Amino acid sequence: xxxxxxxxxxxxxxxxxxxxxxxxxxxxxxxxxxxxxxxxxxxxxxxxxxxxxxxxxxxxxxxxxxxxxxxxxxxxxxxxxxxxxxxxxxxxxxxxxxxxxxxxxxxxxxxxxxxxxxxxxxxxxxxxxxxxxxxxxxxxxxxxxxxxxxxxxxxxxxxxxxxxxxxxxxxxxxxxxxxxxxxxxxxxxxxxxxxxxxxxxxxxxxxxxxxxxxxxxxxxxxxxxxxxxxxxxxxxxxx
Amino acid sequence: xxxxxxxxxxxxxxxxxxxxxxxxxxxxxxxxxxxxxxxxxxxxxxxxxxxxxxxxxxxxxxxxxxxxxxxxxxxxxxxxxxxxxxxxxxxxxxxxxxxxxxxxxxxxxxxxxxxxxxxxxxxxxxxxxxxxxxxxxxxxxxxxxxxxxxxxxxxxxxxxxxxxxxxxxxxxxxxxxxxxxxxxxxxxxxxxxxxxxxxxxxxxxxxxxxxxxxxxxxxxxxxxxxxxxxxxxxxxxxxxxxxxxxxxxxxxxxxxxxxxxxxxxxxxxxxxxxxxxxxxxxxxxxxxxxxxxxxxxxxxxxxxxxxxxxxxxxxxxxxxxxxxxxxxxxxxxxxxxxxxxxxxxxxxxxxxxxxxxxxxxxxxxxxxxxxxxxxxxxxxxxxxxxxxxxxxxxxxxxxxxxxxxxxxxxxxxxxxxxxxxxxxxxxxxxxxxxxxxxxxxxxxxxxxxxxxxxxxxxxxxxxxxxxxxxxxxxxxxxxxxxxxxxxxxxxxxxxxxxxxxxxxxxxxxxxxxxxxxxxxxxxxxxxxxxxxxxxxxxxxxxxx
Amino acid sequence: xxxxxxxxxxxxxxxxxxxxxxxxxxxxxxxxxxxxxxxxxxxxxxxxxxxxxxxxxxxxxxxxxxxxxxxxxxxxxxxxxxxxxxxxxxxxxxxxxxxxxxxxxxxxxxxxxxxxxxxxxxxxxxxxxxxxxxxxxxxxxxxxxxxxxxxxxxxxxxxxxxxxxxxx
Lengths: 239, 544, 168
Ligand SMILES: Cc1cc2nc3c(=O)[nH]c(=O)nc-3n(C[C@H](O)[C@H](O)[C@H](O)COP(=O)(O)O)c2cc1C
Ligand code: FES
Ligand code: FES
Prior knowledge:
The complex is a heterotrimer of chains A (239), B (544) and C (168).
Chain A: E1 7-12, E2 15-20, H1 25-31, E3 55-58, E4 65-66, E5 77-79, H2 83-99, H3 114-121, E6 138-139, E7 145-148, H4 157-166, E8 171-174, E9 181-184, H5 201-205, E10 211-213, H6 227-238
Parallel strand pairs in A: 1-5
Antiparallel strand pairs in A: 1-2, 3-4, 3-5, 6-7, 7-10, 8-9
Chain B: H1 3-18, E1 22-27, H2 30-33, H3 37-50, E2 57-62, E3 74-76, E4 81-82, H4 90-96, E5 106-107, H5 112-115, H6 133-138, H7 143-151, H8 154-164, H9 176-185, E6 192-197, H10 206-213, H11 215-229, E7 233-238, H12 243-258, E8 274-279, H13 289-296, E9 320-324, H14 325-337, H15 339-343, E10 353-360, E11 366-371, H16 376-383, E12 393-398, E13 404-407, H17 417-422, E14 431-436, H18 441-455, H19 461-478, H20 484-500, H21 504-508, H22 511-519, H23 521-530, H24 537-543
Parallel strand pairs in B: 1-2, 6-7, 6-9, 7-8, 10-14
Antiparallel strand pairs in B: 1-3, 3-4, 4-5, 10-11, 12-13, 12-14
Helix pairs in contact in B: 3-4, 7-11, 7-14, 8-9, 8-11, 10-11, 10-12, 11-14, 18-19, 19-20
Chain C: H1 16-26, H2 34-45, H3 50-60, H4 64-73, E1 85-90, H5 93-97, H6 100-111, E2 124-129, E3 141-143, E4 146-148, H7 153-167
Parallel strand pairs in C: 1-2
Antiparallel strand pairs in C: 1-3, 3-4
Helix pairs in contact in C: 1-2, 2-3, 3-4
The structure holds flavin mononucleotide (FMN) and FE2/S2 (inorganic) cluster (2 copies).
C-alpha cells in the first residue's frame, strides 16, 4: 500500500486541503481555520452528530451531511456556508431557544454561552417560532453544582464526558423526544447520586448555563476546558 | 439432514394428510383469534370427536386467510370458505362436508378480493398449520435452503437474488442482492443477519401475519441469506406487542433446530447459524436500522449517523445484514423457482408482489398480496370492494407516518417504488388506509405528526423540536386558530426537518403534511380562512 | 452504607427474582441483556420499580442512569404498578379513521384520567396502543387481554360498569 492511500485531498469552500484518511470534514476544516458551527461536538469526546449545525453540502451527495461525523474522501467538494445552510442553522438555533427557557439577562453564563454566541454569529435578532415555555426544574441538591433544566439543550456533552473521561457514567438521558431530560443515576437529585465523584467535568463542558458552580451570579460562570485535550493527550501516551 | 431425508419427511407428511379425506381449516391468526376463532376450532374438534369422525376428518388451525374483517373464517378441503362462524355453527359445517354448503355463512372465493391477488409470500398462509414444520416441508419448505447449501456457492446465491430484482420490503426498496453483496464482501471476523420484524407503521400488520401464519419461511430466508453473506449468528427483532408471533417463532426455531436445519453443521455442510429473538419494547424508531442495532445491544434505540452503514459496521461493529420480514419471505420461492420466474412478475423496476394491510373506509379489509404494477384503483375498488355506506372515496394513505395521502387523481397509478415516491408518498412496508369524505385531511396530517412527535427519539434537534412545532401548528389549524403565516412557517419547518434530521424518522416525518398540502390545500385553506372543516371533523371537536 | 460485591443482594426473597436471574444468565450477564431482563421483570412483577432497576443494573454492570434511560425510552415499560383492570384503546391509523379518538375521550371523561394513568382507587388503568393488528375490526379495544372489535362509546361504558359491578 502506498502512502498516498493515507492522504486525501479535498476542497472545502473552494480551498484545497489535504487530510489523513479517517479524519472528518470537521477535523480538516479546523486544521485549515475554516469555521464550522457546532454544538454537540467537542474535541476529546465521542461524536454523536446530533445538533445538525455542522451540516455541509457535498457535491454529488443527495443529502446534507454532518461535518463532525463524515469522513473525508478523495476529491470531495464541501460547501460549509451556503445561504441555505445558514438559514437552516438559524432555524435550528431558534428551535433551541424556543424549546427551553433561555433568559440570557439573568443567566450565569451570559457572555460565555455557546448558544448565545451562535445566535450572534448567525445574526438572529428575533424568533419566528413561538416559545414553548415548558415547566422545567432546577436541581440544586449538589453541594457544589447546580443543574438548571431550563437551559439544557440536550447536547449530551455531560453524559459523554462523565462516561468517557471520568468513567462514572453518572449522567444519561431519560424519556424520549421533546420530553427527554438529562438525569443522574436513577433520576434522583444530583446531590444524592452514588456514582457522582464531584469532579465537575460535566459543568465545564456544558455549552450553556444549564450546569454551573454554586455561588456564581449573572455572567460569572466561565467554563474551563483545558483539561479535556490534556487528559486525551496523556491517555493516548499511556496506551 | 440430507435432501433425501427432507424429501422423506415431505412424502410422509403428504401421505398422512391424504389419508384423511376431509379437512377443516380454522384461522387462528390474530384477527380471527380476537373474534373467538379458538372457540370455533374447539367446537369443531369436539364435534368431530363426538361423531367419531376422527379418522376421516381433521380440524386444524391455520394462518391468516386474508379477509380479516369477516372473521372468524373457516375453510374446507373442497375450497368452501365460511365467514362470521361461531362455535354454534360447528355441527352445520360438519354436516355440510357431505352435502351442500351452509349458505348462511358461505362466501364465494371467485370474487375479485381473492381472484386479483397473487400469492407468493402468503402462499402457505391459511393453508398450513404454522406450528408444524412438517406442513411447511410438505409445501416444499427448506428445499431452497438445500439447493443453496448443496448446489450453489454463496456468490451464486447472491447472483440469483440480484437477478430476481427483489427489493427491500421494509420501505425504502433498496436492492436486496446489492445489500447482500456488500455484506458478503465486507471484512469482518463475525457477521450477523438481522430480521427486522419491528413493524412500526401504526396501521399495518403484514409482517405479523407472515410470522404468525408461516414462520418457517422467514427462518429459511434468513438461513439462505446467512449462507450467502457468511454470517453465523442471526437475530429476529420482533415487537413485544406481538405475543403470538413470538410464540410461533420460538416454536419454529425449536423445530428447525431439532431437524438440524438450524444450529451447527447444517446438513453436514459445516455451515452454522444460530437465531435468537430480541423483543422490541414499543419504539417506532427502532425499525430504523442503526436504532435497531442499538436496541439489540441493550441500549436506548437512538439512531446514529450513516455512513458507515450496518452492512460495513453494524451489530458490535461487525458487518450486519438487515432485511425486513417480507424480504426474507420472498427468498425461498426465488431460489426454488428461479430468478427468471420472479423477475417476470411486476414492473421493470419493481419485481414480484407486495403484501398490503388494507384497512380504513373500505368494504373488504384484511391482508392482500398483489403483483407490483397493479393500480391503486384495483386494490381499493376491486379487491377492497370500494367505499361502504354510499360514501365518496377521498384518499388512500400508504407508508404510514413516513408516507403520504394520495387523492382520487392518483388512483390509476401503478403500485411501484418510483411512481409512489414521485406522487409524494412511498411504498412503505405495506400499510394501506382508505379514507372517505368523513376524514379531514388536516386532522389526518395532525394524527401522523402526533405519532412522529411521540416517537421521535429526541437525539437530534430538527426532529425533536420540529415535529413538536409542526404538531402545534397542525393542532392550531384544526382548532381554527391558525393564520396564513402559520401555514408558511409550517412549509419552512417541513423543508428543514426533511433535510436536516439525523434519521429516516425525521427525514420523512413531513411527508404526510407535504402530501396533504399538495393534494388537499383547499381543506387547509378552509380551516384557516373560513374556520370551516370540510369534513366536519374539526368543528365537531371544537363544540364537544 | 451500600456495599457492592460481585453479586448484588436480591431486593427481596420473592421467588420471581429467580426468573430474572435466569434471564440475565441466558443473556450473557452483561449490558446487552438489559432490555431482555427488563422484559422479564415487567412480566413477572407487572412494572419496574427502583429496586428492580438497581438490582438489574448492578447485576449486569450497567450504570444506573443508563438503566433508567433505557427503561423510560421504551413505552412498553412502565415504572408504576397498573390497576386491577386495564383498558387499551388502539390509536393506530385504521382505528383512528374509524373514530378511536371518541373512545379515548369517552374513557378520559368517564374515568377522569389521562392515558397511562390509573384511577386513584387502583381499579382501572387506561392505556393506548398503536395498532393491535385487528385493523379489520377497527376500532379495537383490549379489555384485560381480550381484544374487542367494532367498539363504540356505549359498549365501552357498559364494559366499565360491568367491571365496577363485579368488584362491589
Ligand atoms: C423510522 C423508521 C422506521 C422503520 N421501521 C421499519 C419497520 O418497522 N420494519 C422494517 O422492516 N423496516 C423499517 N424501516 C426500514 C429499515 O430501516 C430498513 O431499511 C429495512 O429494515 C431494511 O430491510 P429491507 O431492505 O429488506 O427493506 C424503518 C426505517 C425508519 C427510518
Ligand atoms: S457538531 Fe456535528 S451534529 Fe452537532
Ligand atoms: S389500527 Fe387499530 S388494530 Fe390496527
